[in-house]
Specification:
alpha+beta, Outer membrane efflux proteins (OEP), 4-stranded antiparallel beta sheet, two-stranded parallel ribbon, 11 helices
């Protein structure tokens, strides 16, 4: 019992270095590395700030419309393949395209108010009239007239000749449609951000599995050595128990890592429309490549030119301005024309053309409350759109600077954690040699194995964080949808 009690702190320390599993993101793992949590926090911040538009949220980009059926083979899935599938099936992109179509329909509805409207009718009437019912009686004349019939074929034309309010409403809908179109184009950046992050998580998961397999192999070597030493009578049972706990912990972490990979692959499949029972292999690796140097000022200037969502917000401001002008113009006179032309008679063969033409000028005389209320509503919406646009400009600036800071920090973390991996491996080798030589027990080996596991995990997390930061910068600047390959520079395995 004393030996097992002594081993409990070691088991607890080994468990403290491992992360739980989450079906979608490694950053939410309860005990996961802080670097992964930081990277996932930055990703979530960018996705939340830029993904909410026209009722389409960042969570919508995690879904898709499933395309095709699962095949028997194992699909080799590259990042480019995943993103191209996302462009076709991602739910967020599909919803944004629907919003654009809705805005296009509204624009056409407003346009119709400015265009001529022509309708046609054809009627055939049979009528009999009782004059006595109207108090009309004439001596010697039958009060019953008819039956008689009338054929009438007619076309009606209505045209607004001058309606400033309708003109401004059409201009507002035109700006709103342009904004919806730009938002749909920007949705491609969100697809790249979401799918790219899901793909990078899977790469990190595979790296962790490789590291855990190596840890398990090292733990097995230590267990065999401790067992051999105990059988030879050169080491106590405590060394065997300690090595056995380390081996079992390594096995648990490997099981957990494999489970996490499968869950993250499901999340990736959900984002790109793959059937969930389709087996696939992550075909790209994520070697460390330095980001292209840039300054915050230059990156922000590029973002102001490239960000489609920013241009969409500017169009919404223009639309709100036109809507306010339309409200003001409600008190202006309007000029309309209505006319009709047709053929009328008792029969088709006995008919004659008839027509009417009416020009009308109308002006509101007493609707002060309605006009003032419409102006106040439109003015409030204009101020709201201007405030949102101003804040979004600053948010873009913050996104750019956050991404650059994350890239710089992650690059330093990669360098530091890579050095820690080398040192931890050297420490483990030294501890194993000391244990084999009999100059120390395997407590040093257990501690060294734990340090090696932590070092590997932090290095993998740093690589993930660096790649997510580069992806976030590409989105922040506005070229993720078209230039994600250059941003990430992934390579095949």
């Amino acid at each position: 019992m004393i030996g097992l009690a002594a081993l409990l702190p070691i088991a607890a320390m080994a468990q403290a270095t491992t992360g739980g599993a989450n079906p979608t993101t490694a950053g939410d793992r309860a005990n996961g590395p802080q670097t992964v949590q930081a990277a996932q926090g930055a990703f979530a911040s960018v996705a939340s700030a830029t993904g909410q538009s026209n009722g389409v949220s960042a969570d919508d980009y995690k879904g898709s419309l499933t395309s095709g059926k699962a095949t028997d083979g194992v699909l080799d899935l590259t990042l480019d393949d995943a993103i191209q599938r996302g462009f076709k099936t991602n739910l967020g992109l599909i919803l944004q395209n629907s919003e654009m179509q809705n805005a296009s329909g509204t624009r056409l509805q407003q346009l119709q108010a400015l265009l001529p409207t022509v309708t046609g009718t054809a009627s055939y009437t049979i009528q009999q009239v009782n004059l006595a019912a109207y108090g009309l009686t004439f001596p010697g004349i039958n009060p019953i007239i008819g039956p008689f019939q009338v054929f009438d074929f007619r076309a009606y034309l209505s045209q607004s000749l001058l309606n400033i309010s309708s003109i401004q409403k059409y201009l507002a809908s035109k700006h709103n449609f342009a904004g919806a179109k730009l938002t749909a184009e920007d949705a491609r950046n969100m697809v790249v951000l979401t799918v790219g992050n899901a793909y990078l998580l899977c790469i990190a998961d595979e790296s962790r599995i490789e590291a855990e397999e190596a840890e398990k192999a090292n733990a097995k070597v230590s267990l065999d050595q401790a067992t051999a030493n105990h059988d030879a009578g050169t080491s106590p049972k405590l060394d065997v128990l300690r090595a056995q706990v380390d081996f079992q912990n390594a096995d648990q972490q490997l099981i957990q890592a494999r489970n996490t990979l499968e869950k993250d692959k499901l999340a990736l499949a959900r984002a790109i429309g793959l059937p969930l029972d389709q087996k696939f292999r992550i075909a790209d690796a994520a070697p460390y490549t330095a980001a292209t140097p840039t300054t915050p000022e230059q990156a922000f200037a590029d973002a102001l030119k490239n960000r489609k969502d920013l241009a969409a917000s500017e169009e919404k401001v223009k639309g709100a301005e036109s809507q306010r002008k339309a409200a003001v113009a409600e008190q202006f006179p309007t000029v309309d024309f209505n006319g009709d032309y047709g053929d009328q008679g008792t029969t088709i063969g006995h008919s004659h053309g008839t027509y009417s033409a009416v020009g009308e000028v109308s002006a509101p005389i007493l609707q002060i409350a309605k006009t003032r209320g419409d102006i106040e509503v439109a003015d409030a919406d204009l101020q709201r759109q201007k405030a949102r646009y101003s804040d979004q400009v600053q948010q873009v600036n913050a996104d750019v600077r956050d991404a650059l800071l994350d890239i710089e920090a992650a690059a330093k973390l990669v360098e530091a954690t890579k050095s820690n991996v080398d040192l931890a491996n050297e420490e483990l080798s030294e501890a194993q040699q000391r244990f084999r030589s009999g100059v120390a027990d395997n407590l040093e080996v257990s501690d060294a194995q734990s340090q090696t596991e932590q070092a590997n995990d932090k290095y993998i997390s740093a690589l993930y964080q660096h790649n997510v930061a580069k992806l976030s910068l590409a989105r922040a600047v506005g070229y993720a949808g078209t230039n994600y390959k250059q941003a990430l520079q992934l390579g095949g395995k």
